[in-house]
Amino acid sequence: MPGWRHRPLPGRGGAGSRAGGALQRSAGTMAAASPCAEPAARNKPDNTAFTQQRLPAWQPLLSAGTALPLFFCVGLACLALGLGLHFSSDTIRELELDYTGAPGSGHNCSRCANASLAGAGGCTCSLRFELPERFPGPVCLYYQLSNYYQNHRRYGVSRDDRQLSGDASGLSNPATECSPFRTDPQGIPIAPCGAIANSLFNDTFALYHLANGTFYPVPLDNRGISWWTDSNIKFSNPELVNGSLEAAFKGTTKPPNWPHAAYMLDMGNTNNTGFINEDFIVWMRTAALPTFRKLYRRVREGNFSSGLPQGTYRLDITYNYPVLSFQGTKKVIFSTVSWMGGKNPFLGIVYLVFGSACILTGFVMLAVHIRFQKQNQMDVE
């Protein structure tokens, strides 16, 4: 029994010893049969190479002969890649136009900005600008917002992916994360629900080129501006009812800030309306930083398929989206693209810094190795 110690009786050492041995064997048998020993046996891992960690493994012995070439090779590779990214980014041409129209700025869109503060929408303004050089096609047209925190948690989760995938149950019963834009005051479900959809960017742009004293429209292509996985997998309209998308949305209402229902986002193109509208899909992919840009259109059709020629242009803006209430700004950006995408000097700088650090570390390690090489040899001898 645990904790009990046998003491042999005086004058009977042999018998006492035999009795003590029997008692010890009995205690051992009781301990082996005790339930406390069962978990240890049950949890014992199998005697295999994997469970006993006897698998063959490669254990490199780092030395100066292996570490130094590795540092120099990695550093040179990063420098080469960084230079390629940096020079490729420098070849991209960009033109930014701020159309926030803050009060007192004297901007052409100041009148529309003041109207947006008063709650009025539909104001139009124009920007006339010079393109200093030819922009080879395809030219991308972006809109940029600043001081806009789409990464706020309450904002980022305020959506119903089940609803956006065309699930009929999502239309009739939106997710609770969409509150307070889940239902209207009468209890009718909102489609699409949530704060992200309700704050959809709705400024529109029209571009014109001055030639022979006349402004000619520049065609803007809205096809393929969203991610393929979004437009073909994540977003889908509900199943048509009698061939009608409007009937599929019956029993729902539009978000409070929208002028029209979802099935009227692009009435001229049935393949670009409802939840599969590309402007809507682009907006629903939230940005990680408070200053972000999103693709609006591409210039790659008609006489401008090769790009935008140098000259005078006019951009007509339908100013609907208010930003002055949260001290935000709005910009339109014309940009060319390269094999790496849009202009991004940061990535090239990161590779250059990392490659330089690797090479510098390699030289420091080489100097230390040369300095203490003789001392190491003496210690070995």
Q: Care to describe what's here?
A:
This protein has 381 residues and is an alpha+beta fold. It has helices at 13-33, 38-42, 64-90, 110-117, 153-156, 161-164, 168-172, 195-198, 228-234, 245-248, 278-284, 345-380, and strands spanning 94-98, 123-131, 135-136, 139-146, 204-211, 214-218, 292-299, 307-308, 311-319, 329-335. A four-stranded antiparallel sheet has the order 1-10-4-7. β5 (204-211) and β6 (214-218) form a beta hairpin. The longest helix has 36 residues, at 345-380. Residues 1-34 have low confidence and may be disordered.
> Could you estimate the helical fraction of the residues in percent?
25-40%
Task: Summarize the helix and strand pattern as letters.
Answer: HHHEHEEEHHHHEEHHHEEEEH
Strand order within the widest sheet?
1-10-4-7
Can you tell me the residue ranges where pLDDT is under 50 for at least 5 consecutive residues? 1-34
Alpha-carbon Rg, integer: 36 Å
Backbone structural class: alpha+beta
Kindly estimate the percentage of residues that lie in beta strands according to DSSP.
Answer: 15-25%
Q: Roughly how many Å apart are the termini? A: 60 Å
Biggest beta sheet summary: 4 strands, antiparallel
Mean pLDDT: 86
Oligomer: single chain
Shape: extended
How many individual β-strands?
10
Number of helices: 12
